[in-house]
TrEMBL record:
PROSITE patterns: HTH_CROC1. Pfam families: HTH_3. GO terms for molecular function: DNA binding. InterPro entries: Cro/C1-type_HTH, Lambda_DNA-bd_dom_sf. This is Helix-turn-helix transcriptional regulator.
Length: 142
């Protein structure tokens, strides 16, 4: 099954059309239709679609069934200098859509919740356990 067919299948399971899936992934409304013409999405685009659909990238594309094909920067996402809550809020495709953009108040509330959680003991413990971050908010390699 092609990448396009897989995206279509998982979209249908969610009750979404391809335009809705594209928008929930932060893409232009017609972006996914290009994949029916033989164009293969780059990994970051495919990851955004998979995240929106709640599936793994390998569920959408056979190209990424083998973990060695995933770009290095994507296979180890903890290789960042610090956690930037502003970046999380600004780039979270699921938090915004072209039709229903978040208000400044909503963005501030989400940022405050994320910051509060990431600064809590539970948040810090999860970051250490799953994110490779130390007490200083930087990854363990620094």
């Amino acid at each position: 099954m092609s990448t396009f067919d897989n995206i279509k299948k998982f979209s249908k399971k969610r009750g979404w059309n391809l335009r809705q899936t594209a928008e929930k992934a932060g893409l232009s409304p017609n972006a996914i239709y290009r994949y029916n013409q033989g164009v293969e999405p780059k990994y970051p685009t495919l990851k955004a679609i998979a995240d929106a659909l709640g599936v793994k990238v390998s569920d959408l594309s056979d190209e990424y069934k083998d973990a060695t094909k995933i770009p290095a920067e994507e296979s180890n996402p903890t290789k960042t200098d610090h956690i930037d809550v502003e970046d999380i809020v600004d780039n979270a495709a699921m938090l915004t859509s072209r039709e229903h953009a978040l208000s400044d108040e909503d963005r501030a509330a989400i940022k405050a919740m994320l910051t509060g959680y990431l600064n809590s003991k539970e948040g810090q413990d999860r970051l250490k356990k799953y994110g490779g971050y130390g007490d200083n908010g930087k990854n363990g390699d620094d």
